[in-house]
Each structure stands twice: as C-alpha cells, then as structure tokens.
Amino acid sequence: MDKELLEFTTEKVNQMQAAPSAAESTKKAAQAWKDAIAAGEDADAATNTLMDAISEHQTTIDSLIGFVGSDAGAKVFGAEEAQKKLEHAKKRKAAGAKFCDCGACRPCHELLAKFGREEPDVYL
After folding, report:
1. Would you list the domain boundaries of the chain?
2. What is the pTM of this model?
3. Sign of the alpha-carbon torsion through 59, 24, 108, 19
4. DSSP 98-122
5. Which of 110, 115, 123, 114 is nearest to 58 (CA)?
6. 3-class state of residue 38 by DSSP
7. Fewer CB in 10 Å around end: N or C, the chain?
8. Cα separation of the two ends of the chain
9. Residue 48: predicted pLDDT
10. Residue 7, exposed/middle/buried by CB under 10 A (0-12, 13-18, 19+)?
11. CA 46 → CA 58, 82, 120, 121, distances in Å?
12. What is the pLDDT of residue 116?
C-alpha cells in the first residue's frame, strides 16, 4: 500500500473509531487494523480484513430515515435534533444517497468506496 493510501486509511479509521455513533464491533475492527499496521503486518491484508468487517454494518438511508423519524429516534436524539436529522437524511436521499452519513458511517463508506467495495455515496 502506498503512503498516500495508508494515510487516507489511517485518517478514516481514526474518524470512525472516535465517532460516538460507532458500534463496538466497528471500533474493534478499527483498532485491530491499527494494531496490525503498528506491528508491521501486511497493510493490504489488514485493510481487506477491515473492509470485510465494516461492510457488515451498513445503515441505509431508509433505515436512518425510519429511525430518526420514530419515537425511538426522538428519545435518543431529542425531538428537535431527530427532526433535523430526518430532514437532512431526506435531502440526502432525494440527492441519491444510499447510506447514513454519521461520524461513524461516513468514513466507513468513504473507505469502502476508495477500495472499490461500493460506489461512492452522496454527501451534502
């Protein structure tokens, strides 16, 4: 893996690991990648393992809209914030977005797109 791609991957791994919305499994996969890189293991192999792990945890735009538009979403985010998230998600969907763009999901999808695992998503 070239230096530029390694730096990009490191930045995205750090972003998803730091995101409050990241699932524990995503954080563990990110840490496993960082540990493998720090230990001098094959970066391509470590990255493939990471891509496999994060591709399993995809929140679609429709799932996001369903959640933030629900009573459960209002309880998690508060009614006003849930409404803002709902409006944002609907705008993204209208623009062709396929996935959630929270602090954990966006870097995951940017990585998956960069490594050819999915088409790039729409970000507003």
Report:
1. 1-58+101-118, 60-98
2. 0.89
3. positive
4. -B--STTHHHHHHHHHHTTSS----
5. 110
6. helix
7. C
8. 30
9. 96
10. exposed
11. 20, 36, 22, 24
12. 95
In whole angstroms, what is the distance from residue 94 CA to residue 76 CA?
Answer: 25
* pLDDT on residue 27: 94
Contacts of 82 (CB under 8 A, 6+ apart): 68, 69, 73, 74, 76
Q: Is 50 left (phi over 0), alpha (psi -120 to 50) or beta?
A: alpha
Question: How long a stretch of residues is the chain?
Answer: 124
Residue pair 65/85 in contact (Cβ under 8 Å)? The answer is no
Which amino acid does the sequence have at 61? I
22: tokens are: 């990241």
Per-block average pLDDT, block size 10, for the chain (124 residues)?
95 96 93 97 96 90 97 96 97 97 95 95 90
